[in-house]
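Good morning N.,

You mentioned wanting to compare the apo and holo forms, so I went ahead and generated the holo version with zinc ion. This is what I fed in:
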Amino acid sequence: MKNIEKEIFTQKLNNLYTQVLQELASIGIDMRNKDAVGDIDIKISTRSTKRYGCCKQENPDKQYKVVEKLGRRKSIRYEKFKTHHIEISKWVLDLNDEIIKNTIIHELIHCIPFCNNHGEEFKKYANYINKKLGYNIKARGNKKEDYEKSNLTYMENENYSYKIICEGCGQVIYRKRLNTKLLKRYRCGKCGGKLKLLEENHQGIKKEL
Ligand SMILES: [Zn+2]
Ligand SMILES: [Zn+2]
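and this is what came out, ligand included:
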């Protein structure tokens, strides 16, 4: 990831994360309560182009140990962890803020005891948050649909020519054609910020600038 992109996206992620924590607290879900949910950190991951995000759990709480007998075998799992590392995939940060916040909340729910999978407890929280705050948190996202909602063409084949980022709000714009000399004079339609060219693609050759 390019430095400027990393910087802008990290700031964008941190802002949205703060917003989400406040919104959740306003409906009684306090993700800053360490006794209840443990320590949480969040960062951008560049590894996956499919997955929206993930939540890596550490330090299981021994009081939440569940032993299940499956025939002769025993399976052990924990329903509460004290440390959580959330990763949001970089491509998600191209999408609109609502979808990024959806993804953050999805991963935050996994930090709540008994919510480490997409079972009943997870769904209970997702439904409650959707109802109270108007989100659309699901077990699985639809990448094509989310691109369309963000007014971006679905770029699975990377058949765009220019990728531009707003230095103000982190909005990403793809263009087939662009007069790069005029770019300096253009401004972001959302916040009026300066635009910066990040990538150029020419006939299948991808160049990170
Ligand atoms: Zn999940
Ligand atoms: Zn902007």
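The first strand starts at residue 39 and ends at 45.

Happy to go through it together on a call whenever suits you.

Best,
F.
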